[in-house]
From TrEMBL:
This is Gfo/Idh/MocA family oxidoreductase. Residues 47-163 form the Gfo/Idh/MocA-like oxidoreductase N-terminal domain. InterPro entries: Gfo/Idh/MocA-like_OxRdtase_N, Gfo/Idh/MocA_oxidrdct_glycsds, GFO_IDH_MocA-like_dom, NAD(P)-bd_dom_sf. SUPFAM superfamilies: Glyceraldehyde-3-phosphate dehydrogenase-like, C-terminal domain, NAD(P)-binding Rossmann-fold domains. Keywords: Oxidoreductase. The keyword Oxidoreductase applies. It comes from Chitinophaga defluvii. Signal peptide: none annotated. PANTHER family: BCDNA.GH03377. It comes from the Bacteria. Residues 177-308 form the GFO/IDH/MocA-like oxidoreductase domain.
Length: 398
């Protein structure tokens, strides 16, 4: 499959060919018996997938799921019914629904893939878990850490599981960097930096509304990468603000910007490393939102015996530059991302559910990232360093 980028966010199903979808036919969209209780996971069989939110992100997820040998998309839902119907026409036999309640009462499925507006993630995840569905959720998992923790506790009580984007820990570039760090090839790690930004999405208001913002949309990638490399953070200091007070977007016209469109966050990791990320919707970059052709690093790591830099965005890496005291001439490693693409998370979870193969993505890591985002805003509000309570299994890659 041709590698796709986040630029596809602005594309809709018009760019997708019907031939891309290979799911077998399933029952009609009405009259199906509802599945109750926890989903029963097939072994070495296709995982039945229901996707909610048939906007731009689904236009990248669905083709990837279509090529996944462990997934079968059987159910689609959107509050704009015509989008769900349009998507269903491109998937042979898929059902479509205008509301999540009808979706839950419709054709049975094993995994809900949530690609709705981020403000809706927590509410919809709760509904799905209450109906006994496993969940893969685009970032963030919920609007607050407390809500995310409640969702996880609810999933455990129901006997189902939930996972959350991003999938950056899956890239071979991440694995290479983690291995160098874990083996001590850079000496004692002191500091790291990550950045990601562009001029801001123009297709939807939710990015700029309450519980939107550059941190859960952009910073989330760097936060996941740096905590993945150096382990959980124990405290956060941050500054956030709004640089552009109004935006003109496709769905609502001119709107006030409420959520931060500019952020700088400093972490103290439990391992002693200090790391920093910056993100925003006011960054001019000649490589744009998609980052194609980017040759500069966006993740940098500095140690007592070496330094290392991930080339390109961490959701679409193009290599790792490294120099050490033993080999001081900078060399580029891992130029090929292999099969990794940012939209692979749901497919990876389908493989896990079908075969038992353990994913690197861990829900506790997603919750830790969410707590960091919330703590960053609290730090800006109070002017104080904020201590964190969450953690996750680490190292991610041994």
């Amino acid at each position: 499959m041709k590698k796709m980028t986040r630029k596809s966010f602005i594309s809709n199903f018009g760019v997708l060919g019907a031939a891309a979808f290979i799911s077998p036919a399933v029952l009609g969209s009405t009259g199906s018996k509802a599945q109750t209780g926890p989903a029963i996971l097939p072994v070495n069989k296709k995982i039945r997938v229901g996707l909610i939110g048939c906007g731009s992100v689904s236009g990248v997820y669905l083709p990837h799921l279509a090529t996944c040998p462990y997934a079968e998309v059987v159910s689609l839902c959107d509050i704009k019914p015509e989008r769900a119907q349009k998507a269903a026409k491109k998937i042979n036999g898929a059902n479509w629904y205008p509301h999540i309640d009808k979706m839950m009462a419709g054709v049975p499925f094993d995994l809900l893939v949530n690609t709705t507006n981020m403000q809706e993630h927590g509410r919809l995840n709760k509904i799905a878990i209450a109906a006994g569905k496993n969940v893969w959720c685009e970032k963030p998992l919920a609007n607050t850490y407390r809500e995310g923790r409640e969702i996880l506790d609810m999933a455990k009580a129901k006997g189902v599981k939930i996972w959350g984007a991003p999938a950056v820990v899956n890239s071979p570039q991440f694995a290479f960097m983690a291995k160098q760090i874990n083996e001590g090839n850079l000496g004692r790690i002191a500091a790291a930096h990550g950045h990601y930004g562009h001029e801001g999405p123009g297709w939807s208001a939710f990015f700029y509304e309450e519980n939107g913002g550059s941190l859960p949309d952009l910073g989330v990638y760097n936060i996941a990468t740096l905590t993945g490399l150096f382990g959980p953070a124990k405290s956060v200091v941050a500054m956030t603000n709004v640089i552009t007070p109004t935006r003109t977007v496709d769905d609502k016209g001119t709107i006030p910007v409420v959520a931060e469109d500019n952020a700088q966050v400093l972490f103290e990791h439990k391992s002693g490393v200090l790391s920093h990320i910056q993100c925003g919707f006011n960054y001019f970059d000649p490589y744009g939102h998609q980052g194609t052709g980017q040759e500069r690093p966006t993740i940098s790591v500095y140690g007592s015996k070496g330094n290392m830099h991930m080339v390109g965005y961490d959701w679409m890496p193009a290599g790792v530059d490294m120099a050490t005291s033993a080999n001081p001439q900078t060399q580029r490693f891992v130029r090929d991302a292999g099969t990794y693409v940012w939209q692979e998370g749901a497919s990876v979870i389908c493989e896990h559910m079908a075969t038992g193969k353990k994913p690197l993505i861990n829900v506790e890591h997603s919750l830790h990232v969410l707590e960091i985002i919330e703590a960053s805003r609290e730090s800006q509000r109070t002017g104080k360093r904020i201590d964190l309570v969450s953690s996750f299994p680490w190292p991610v890659v041994v």
